[in-house]
Amino acid sequence: MLQRGGLVAFPTETVYGLGADAFNPRAVARIFEVKARPSFDPLIVHLAEAASLDWVAVSDDPRAVELAARFWPGPLTLVLKRRPELPDIVTSGLDTVGVRVPAHPAARALIAAAGTPLAAPSANPFGYVSPTTAAHVAELLGATVDLVLDGGPCQVGLESTILSLAGDPVILRPGGLPREALEEALGVPLPVAAAAERPLAPGQLERHYATRTPLVILAGRAERATAGEGRVGLLAQLPTHAEGFTAIEVLAPDGAIETAAARLFAALRRLDGLGLDRILAEPCPETGLGHAIMDRLRRAAARDA
Ligand code: TXA
Ligand code: MG
What we know:
Helix content: 25-40%
Radius of gyration: 19 Å
Number of helices: 8
Bound molecules: threonylcarbamoyladenylate, magnesium ion
Strand order of the largest sheet: 7-1-2-6-3-5-4-8-9
Shape: globular
């Protein structure tokens, strides 16, 4: 299907992707159509293995080689100088390309079998919460894609961390690989790029990853929160005795931040499906994966940005 220009949704360890042959501009154009995605938004190219990097990027940067060896396959996207052969529609005409090797065995098998790198955004309509199960994809994009490969729920549950090495190293999007791990590997502190008007990464758009239901981040622990008027949902990080809520989702019943990350988008989606007036979200400490979780919650909470 991919070789014929089709669109295949596939599992990765982060979120489900909507893939097309990166060297087929018509197929890639269909991704933008299906996602209703603004065309300024470049796509991540997915490889089966780091050895294929030369196909799409100029990989003479020793930092890229080192990070690829250390963190691929895994939830890290590197922004590197692109190869001119890559169609412009993939990179939105930028002279850089975002590239990663996903860790899910089904993703790597699919890319290897297709024999071509796959351009793939998260398999959700633009701006909405990313899918972490095949059922989410079917629900959101069902009839418009040619195939949805079911590889079970995503283990990481947050999109990849995007690190640009095009200039001074900068994190364009916090994600499934903690910033601390990258700083340790590179031996330098890494700034996180601020939201921009015309973003390098829409993950940088202030309002993104959003629920349809208004979402408000609490100042502290859920126990202290009052639900207030109407039908209100609570997104709690930890088991809670909070009262007065129409629905409560606990992200980490076992107290582990990895569990919270893996369950975040599915929990948001469940709350969003209940027709609530409001969702209150408990914050988590901003270390390790907590940085990306809070990033997504803030963007979901930003109204009319
Ligand atoms: O975990 C992930 O990264 C998932 C899975 C499917 O791999 N993909 C994903 O793709 O989140 P998407 O399209 O939803 O988000 C990719 C982000 C976008 O914000 C895009 O702007 C940014 O990567 N990006 C891609 N290429 C870029 C480039 N050359 N320079 C700057 N940002 C880039
Ligand atoms: Mg996305």
